[in-house]
Amino acid sequence: MEHITLSDGEWKIMKLLWAQSPHTVGEIVKALEGETGWTKPTIFVMLKRLIAKGAVRMDDSGKLQEYYPLIQREDVVPQEVDSFLSRVFDGSVRMMISALTDRKTLTKKDIAELRQILDAAEQNGKE
Prior knowledge:
Blueprint: H1 8-19, H2 25-36, H3 40-53, E1 56-59, E2 66-69, H4 73-89, H5 93-102, H6 108-124
Antiparallel strand pairs: 1-2
């Protein structure tokens, strides 16, 4: 799959489409209005960008145009994580974890879950 980069706003729309599809422009506006305040023209422009990127498809065979995701969340998360790590932490997972722990926002549950993830990665990981 070709690398598709999503803006923060595009992520909001894609999350909505991944959760349930199809959606009309009006439904997207209504679903995001409290969080974003975006108007119909703004949503329409963002959908056009997502279509151009190959992330969304529009079906205009019915009374209203409906929008569907063409990519899955699992297809873009790994490259977004890599991009984030590279931009913010120079590719260092250790620096990211250190930043999280330095903020003292991790709960005991978070730490236990991270420990389980790391233990599983150690068993399946590289030398």
